[in-house]
Amino acid sequence: MLTLEHVDAGYGRVQVLRGLSFGARAGEVTCVMGRNGAGKTTMLRAIMGQVAVTSGRILLDGAALEGLAPHRIPQLGIGYVPQGRRLFGPLTVAENLEIGLMTRGRGSRTRERVLELFPRLRERLDQAASTLSGGEQQMLAIGRALCLEPKLLLLDEPTEGLQPSMIALIRDTVRRLRGMGVAVVLVEQRIEAVLDLADRVAFVETGRVAETLPAADLSPAAQQFARYVGV
Ligand SMILES: Nc1ncnc2c1ncn2[C@@H]1O[C@H](COP(=O)(O)OP(=O)(O)O)[C@@H](O)[C@H]1O
Ligand SMILES: [Mg+2]
């Protein structure tokens, strides 16, 4: 599904990703872990065409993503929920969802499915996104990404700072998407969440994936958590 091969990328002259290789498969949750500043967000931004890839390849089902204009990438069926939720604040919930739907020409059937997943959004369709609670904003960010009917969904620390009930809802959603065959890439720092959800875990260290393991091979006491996450 998604393959990154020896990717170098960064911001201007600052190189962040250094020969990073990574993969994600349909119907699996691949968790990405690593210390602050390791390059997790930059990896997702490289996939989305938002940082300059100076070397290496990024392939979706064998087709190259690197070098495409950033607006082309969501059109291929890649949903992205950035760290810290970047919504169009003055727009309403309905308008935010509409942006997602338009990106890939989806209509009311898709919208209905997303609203069934997140009934709270339906109650707030005419409300400005900026007036939603943190959890509701995250729901909207995910809902908007799902309006693309993505085959690949990138989630960057989606439960950071949210209440337990909202965290549980987001985890349920991730499981459902996996069941529907979506390839999910989840940046997540909580070990229990990772062990609960992940099929595979990629550990990022200084701009590269140092190790990828099946989640079944990891326990809470695994040395990888201490080594790459520092807990
Ligand atoms: N817009 C930017 N311009 C320059 N450097 C950046 C920018 N965003 C992030 N960086 C740097 O890239 C490195 C990796 O950051 P990031 O990908 O956000 O890490 P992570 O998500 O793993 O915490 C850090 O050293 C960070 O300071
Ligand atoms: Mg980050």
Automatic annotation (TrEMBL):
Keywords: Amino-acid transport, ATP-binding, Nucleotide-binding, Transport
Highest taxon above the source species: Bacteria
GO biological process: L-amino acid transport
Pfam families, per the entry: ABC_tran (PF00005)
InterPro entries assigned to the protein according to its UniProt record, in alphabetical order: AAA+_ATPase, ABC_transporter-like_ATP-bd, ABC_transporter-like_CS, BCAA_Transport_ATP-bd_LivF, P-loop_NTPase
GO molecular function, one term: branched-chain amino acid transmembrane transporter activity
Domain ABC transporter: 2-231
CDD domains named in the record: ABC_TM1139_LivF_branched
Similarity section: Belongs to the ABC transporter superfamily.
Cross-referenced PANTHER family: HIGH-AFFINITY BRANCHED-CHAIN AMINO ACID TRANSPORT ATP-BINDING PROTEIN LIVF
The protein's name: Amino acid/amide ABC transporter ATP-binding protein 2, HAAT family
Organism: Cereibacter sphaeroides (strain ATCC 17023 / DSM 158 / JCM 6121 / CCUG 31486 / LMG 2827 / NBRC 12203 / NCIMB 8253 / ATH 2.4.1.) (Rhodobacter sphaeroides)
Source lineage: Bacteria, Pseudomonadati, Pseudomonadota, Alphaproteobacteria, Rhodobacterales
